[in-house]
Design a protein that fits this description.
The N and C termini lie far apart (82 Å). With 233 residues, the protein is an all-alpha fold. Helices cover 76% and strands 0% of the residues. Helix 3 runs antiparallel to helix 4 and helix 7 runs parallel beside helix 9. The chain folds into two domains: 107 residues, no CATH class; 109 residues.
């Protein structure tokens, strides 16, 4: 093997990543750098990340991946005598890191999503993984709080989603029937009180087409009084 082979490949990788960042397509990179053919799997991964596939999260995740590639290239310059196999394994790890960063970015973006938004199914899928590690009482309370948080967030945007309110109430009832004590009971009670206040306001302020559904949710909330007692104040 030529001693400077790794340095040569590292420089090509860095230049190709820069060209992708600037908007060049893969074919252009290969025309400009024919020697990059051996790096094609890594470059395809970079291109995949740039396009964002189904989720448009291109700038942050791609920039991080490019920086990782450039970091590897700079290290390769300091250690030119490295086996070709080691270089390719490192390249694969850079690509894998990029995929992980995209996945984390998707999950982070999904956390703020609401029903009918593209990333909401991702949010619910990740939520199910977390919920599976909790006790039944803790899981029910956690889900009740999350669905109610979504209901309030949507309401601030002028979107009234009675289904979220009803789902939150079902989880709240499940948690209460599990016999929550101590801090858990305090959280249950606080959520119950808040739901009553917000539902009363929602029935008053919501448009006519959703008012009847919100009124039904309010009645369901009132039926939980036997578990919590009458609202304070």
């Amino acid at each position: 093997m030529v001693p400077n082979e790794e340095l040569h490949e590292a420089e090509i990788l860095e230049r190709c990543l820069r060209r992708l960042e600037q908007g060049a397509d893969l074919e252009t990179c290969l025309r400009e750098f024919p020697e990059a053919a051996s790096l094609l799997p890594l470059l395809k991964t970079a291109r995949w990340l740039q396009k964002g596939r189904e989720v448009s999260l291109r700038p942050p995740a791609l920039q991080r991946m490019i920086r990782q590639g450039q970091l590897y290239a700079s290290r390769a310059k300091a250690r030119p005598v490295v086996s070709s196999l080691t270089f390719r394994w490192a390249g694969a790890l850079v690509a894998l890191l990029g995929l992980i960063l995209v996945a984390l970015s998707v999950v982070s973006a999904a956390e703020a999503s609401l029903p009918d938004e593209p990333l909401y199914p991702v949010k619910r899928a990740v939520e199910s993984l977390f919920a599976a590690t909790m006790s039944p009482e803790e899981r029910a309370l956690w889900l009740a709080e999350r669905r109610w948080e979504e209901f309030e967030t949507a309401a601030t945007q002028g979107r009234w989603l009675p289904a979220l309110a009803e789902e939150s109430l079902r989880h709240l009832e499940e948690a209460a029937q599990s016999g929550g004590k101590g801090p858990a009971h305090a959280r249950l009670r606080a959520l119950y009180e808040r739901q009553g206040v917000i539902l009363e306001q929602a029935v008053r302020d919501a448009p006519p087409e959703t008012r009847s559904e919100l009124a039904r949710a309010q009645r369901e909330w009132a039926q939980l009084a036997h578990l919590f007692g009458p609202p304070e104040g």
